[in-house]
Amino acid sequence: MVRHFLSVTDMNREESEALLDRAAALKAEWYAAGRGVHPGMPMQGRTLALVFEKPSLRTRVAFESGMTQLGGHPSYLSANDIDMGGRESVPDVARNLSRWVQVIAARVFKHSTVETLARYSSVPVINALCDVEHPCQALADMLTLREHFGRLQGLKLAYVGDGNNVCNSLLLLGATLGVNVAVGAPQDYLPDPEIVARAEVLAAESDATITVTTSPSEAVADAHAVYTDVWASMGQEHEAARRRPVFEPYRVDAALMAQANSSALAMHCLPAHRGEEMSAEVIDGPRSVIFDQAENRLHVQKALVLTLLGM
Ligand code: CP
Ligand code: NVA
């Protein structure tokens, strides 16, 4: 039975916690090795295919360097290289790659594309971002929160901004792990009610709460961390001018941070636009953990590849 990771909900609470434990262990091992190669190089002789329809810095380099550090090899395939769905059908891309590589990570426009890859692949497929979720990001964010607070259960994470892929994965994974997630978003950009309903079911099981509001102040009240993302995601660039005035009241700046817990962390998945969704003062300020989040992409993605391969 091949194990895929298309959504944070593909792992239950126990598995998600084990994955974070493993990421933390790999992080410690990597530092002990002088940030070099992991002892035993467990991925030696193995290849990860990176099928990317959209740009990436963090996701791509975290997977590529992670494979190098584990002794394996990444093969990066941009839209120009394989023109998935054009030059070759999505099922045929999956069938071919399965014959050569041990894992596939795919960054795609439509969630249905990662589902199709998974359906026709005989090796694990990882969702490296789609329109619905960004599960690798949420794992890194939970590891970052756990490192700073020593726990996840009972924390309040406020997400302020667009109810997008990053927001969805934070809602679902936070709810799985006992984090109270509050989303503050403009009326027309609230997260998908179906995702919110699923998060509420998970939150009931983990003794957490889900709050969805159009008030940024209500979302950040007593929060341990305040998170935001770009106002226009990849593929929505043409909407940027229309979105800007709608999102202005949702900027995470010093005034909004002052309404959260006095030691609240500032979080962003990056790339960030200083002065738009988050002020430069907050991004570069003492409570910002954004580059810890970025680093933790490396550790969780290594843990994920090993776990999905049953290693
Ligand atoms: N946060 C994140 O996924 O960054 P990239 O788009 O650069 O991979
Ligand atoms: N919501 C953003 C996240 C980028 C990492 C996007 O989809 O472009």
What features would you highlight for this structure?
311 residues, alpha/beta, Rossmann fold, five-stranded parallel β-sheet, 13 helices, 44% helix, binds phosphoric acid mono(formamide)ester, binds norvaline, EC 2.1.3.3, ornithine carbamoyltransferase activity
Kindly describe this structure.
This protein has 311 residues and is an alpha/beta fold. The protein has two domains: 13-134 and 294-309, Rossmann fold (3-Layer(aba) Sandwich), CATH 3.40.50.1370; 138-291, Aspartate/ornithine carbamoyltransferase (Rossmann fold), CATH 3.40.50. The chain contains 13 helices and nine strands. The chain has helices at residues 13-32, 58-69, 79-82, 90-100, 111-120, 135-149, 165-176, 193-206, 216-220, 240-247, 254-257, 280-283, 290-308; strands at 47-52, 73-78, 103-107, 125-127, 156-160, 180-184, 210-213, 225-228, 265-268. The protein has a five-stranded parallel beta sheet with strand order 7-6-5-8-9. A four-stranded parallel beta sheet has the order 2-1-3-4, with helices on both faces. Helix 4 (90-100) packs across helix 5 (111-120), helix 6 crosses helix 7 and helix 6 packs across helix 13 (290-308). The longest helix has 20 residues, at 13-32. The two termini are 14 Å apart. It binds phosphoric acid mono(formamide)ester (CP) and norvaline. Residues 129, 134, 164-166, 229-230, 233-234, 269 line the site of norvaline (NVA). Carbamoyl phosphate binds at residues 107, 134-137, 269-270, 297. L-ornithine binds at residues 165, 229, 233-234. Belongs to the aspartate/ornithine carbamoyltransferase superfamily. OTCase family. Pathway: Amino-acid biosynthesis; L-arginine biosynthesis; L-arginine from L-ornithine and carbamoyl phosphate: step 1/3.
